[in-house]
Batch of 4 targets.
Target 1
Amino acid sequence: MMEKKVKLRTVNSCITCILCRGYLIEATTTTECLHTFCKSCLVRYLEDHNSCPKCQTLIHQSHPMNYISHDRTMQDIVYKLVPNLQQKELRRQQEFFRKHASQGIKPELEDVNDNHTENVVSVKEENKDFHRHDEQLNVCLECQGTMKNLKRKFLRISSQATVSHLKKFVALKLYSDQTKYTNIEILCNDELLGKHHTLKFVAVTRWRVKDGPLLLHYRQKTLDF
């Protein structure tokens, strides 16, 4: 099988950040629209905005930074495609730590070896806590109407997750396509919920002091005539 070579500039638009126009560093993706940016660029942008810099999709009304995540796969692709980018970034970080050593900031990076193309950041894991510290809610998702039942209807989920996230979850589980979430409605006590409502808001305003998990129903979107 003949190997086909592709010039880097043909894929540049897929591996660069539209905010800084450079190659992605610490690639970070929004959970709403799945667009990717440099972590520092996106965090700086979200200090004053709550929507995606590329498509303007609302990430979250009040806590957009809770709905972005590190995209390790994308970052690995960028490092493999762009020669010496990882080595240059590691050297830049080491230089930063050297300049700020007086402030007690210590690097946990391995020395960069130009003879190797796969240098890895070394992180001390023994004292790291990987548990989530945001408030969690127990949720039960029941089917209402003719849609299929979920195989696992009980969820433990962040209280800052929105109704829109639940709709996408149901669409992914039932249709294997989260883009069909617009055809799904979520209800609590037979009341249709707004897509931007957080589960914390729903629990406080709709569920109140009821025992057990937050009971929500999903159904096919009703057509308006």
Note: The chain has two domains: 13-94, 136-220.
Target 2
Amino acid sequence: MMLDATKQDVQRSLLEKELESVGIRLNKSKPNIYFKVKKGGGIAFNSTCPLTKIDEKLVQMILHEYKIFNAEVLFREDVAADELIDVISANRVYLPCLYVYNKIDQISMEEVDRIARQPHSVVVSCNMKLNLDYLLESLWEDLALIRVYTKKPGQPPDFDDGLILRRGVTVEHVCHSIHRTLAAAFKYALVWGTSTKYSPQRVGLQHVMADEDVIQIIKK
């Protein structure tokens, strides 16, 4: 999220509220709550940890507001009512976000230091080209990105045009990134890199890729 450092925290707060209102949660993980609607039996309330922000009565009130009178709810972490509502709604999106504050050349050093110490925040000046290298490093780290390079049979890897993917992707995700029909025609893949025990290693669709891996896909 690109922000104007001269506007302090006002701009960020407004944008976060707009995203919250449409169900987008930034730098948050999905609440660890098991929730299942049932046909009968009333409300079954349980927790595996002490709850300091919510209790059984409040849970029942919230569920009744949603016309839910039979359900099983199991709390595996201490959460607030808003997070339970997110789970009930089942339409929230949880996204990582890096806050990039531009125009730091127009504010005081004290303010730059304050902003830079905030979580998931990077300060830059595009006009003066300040801190842009650190921004690039932070993008890779905070957004959990990796590079995967492709290789055609009998040719060297294409290191000039790598695929930018999220950490934890499988060979199947790589296939979809190249072409939507490739996974259906997939036979096996050869992978070189840190995700393999030896190079090249023959792998299937569920093999998890690592940063800077090279992949050659063999079709049926």
Note: The chain has a mean pLDDT of 93.
Target 3
Amino acid sequence: DHIVGGTLMTMRDTFLTQAEYSRLVYECVAQDCSGSWEVWMEEPALLKPRKLWTGKQVFTAVLMHYTRDQLPFTMYADSKVSNDIWGKNNGAMHPLGSEVVKACLPGGQRKPFRHNMMALMTVTGAKGSVVNFSQISCLLGQQELEGRRVPRMSSGKTLPCFAPYDAGARSGGFVGDRFLTGLRPQEYYFHCMAGREGLVDTTVKTSRS
């Protein structure tokens, strides 16, 4: 929550009135105020038609307060949210380079990144990952067992509902549906097979370590 809140607070179009700005700064530094210490207050970013402060100025005021009489606090790091995410450029987000995911995330969503809570949560790193986002909004993709497509039984079928030696993508474990709208029974079964293998691998590695 604090990561998402910080992202929303520091957006360029986030403006606060004097009452909102003062309240946020005071709540952050109230426990540390003592004696004659004065709370650092930034000049308003906008003067007309009325005085407004940005969300970034709240962080500036808090940092200036806690670094009083000390070396200034600085932190240099690459932003987790790339520039492509803010605009209409889809970017290469999916680790497998899926064209479907690149077309859907995040530019293909009905709500853009900054107003899409799922995108905001995963892209900023607050919770979840792009893989979770793609499986919910786009598709689950190819399910693998031991690094290969779903194996066939002696009958030549991967599941009884498919024809023998069916070479189609769906019969080989490709899941073209998503969690948001639901999976077909055979897709759900393939996904459970891959998930079970992952649980077994995790258990074995844990016992060996």
Note: The mean pLDDT is 78.
Target 4
Amino acid sequence: MSQRFVLYDNANSPFGQRVRIALREANVEYTSFEVDTANKPAWFVEKINPIGKVPAILYGGPDVPPDQPSPDSVKLAESHIIAEFIADLYPDSGLMPRDPVQRAHVHRFVDIVNTKFTPEIIPWFVTGASWQGIVDALVALQDLLPDDAAFAVGGSLTLADVAFVPLYSMFWIMCEKGLCLAEAARPRDVAEIVNGPELAKLKAYVDGLLVRPSIKAAVDQERQEKYLRKFVAGAHRHD
């Protein structure tokens, strides 16, 4: 099968940013197709991802336009599945360690990101639900960081870092800039905790990774802030 990759994505999605980082770290050439998540084309749902979510990828098959996907190509969705697929295809990328213990540590870190941190953000952002679960997840992740805290696991970037940094960056902007739909979310108060001494190690770890070329190219914090401001302003206009 050919090594052709097409990424169906929206640049504002932290989940799509995960895939972009993984592709860059693996030095994979790919075609990017921007999907309007508010008005998804019918062919995307019918031929790429029946659930209609981005990111999704097309792998292999003939070289055809992205909006005319071949049935001979593999279609995958869900950012963590796609990222692990890339890691398996390109083991020399180091995205997944070869050592079984280190691999287990990566899976443990990613599991906390996906099951403890990420699910708490939307209820807090939209309705002002308690932020305590978010902080608890961040503390748990910080506790897993090694002493030097350059990377989540081992001495190089892995899927643990890929899974966490884009989502944390978006969350940090929500807090730092006070960009939430619900006043009860009290993002400025949460920012004091996130930027405070109890989570200083985690913040320093993320700040160090945000300047890495693959992450800097995918995670544009200025763009994230503009997107959030527009989203919040639009939602408030329709209240």
Note: The domain at 5-89 is CATH 3.40.30.10 (Glutaredoxin).
